[in-house]
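re: ur question from yesterday

yeah so i grabbed the chain u mentioned. its 122 aa long if i counted rite. heres the sequnce exactly as i have it in my notes:
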Amino acid sequence: MKRGQNIQNLSVMPEDISRVMQLADISMVFDYLETTFHISTNWRLLYKNELQTQPRGISELEFFCKFLKEHIEPPINKLRMRDDTLFAMLRYLLKDRIEERRQEENFYRRHQHRDSRWSKGR
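ran it thru and got these structure tokens back, copy pasting raw so excuse formatting
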């Protein structure tokens, strides 16, 4: 990493996902993977073990996405004959929160612009 480079710039998570994903979602994702793709519950244990060995600078959510990208996504992509299964799946599981966040941002953007016009005219 170059001097002055922020660790946030190295994120593998797309911005729309990183804005709404929470620690509780990790369990939800494993539940979904176990139910839908019948992955072993041992993956959850391996994740927890590998998490303990990570440096402090990486968030648990970031590590979770890196873990899935390294261990879970490649075989699922092969089975489905697709790319980027991981983030498509996360967007599907978090779609309500992503949409809610998008609507909030649009609302604030519209109202902030409207408020700034009123304050300039006074």
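noticed a couple things. Residues 116 and 122 are 10 Å apart (CA to CA). also The longest helix spans residues 95-121.
anyway ttyl
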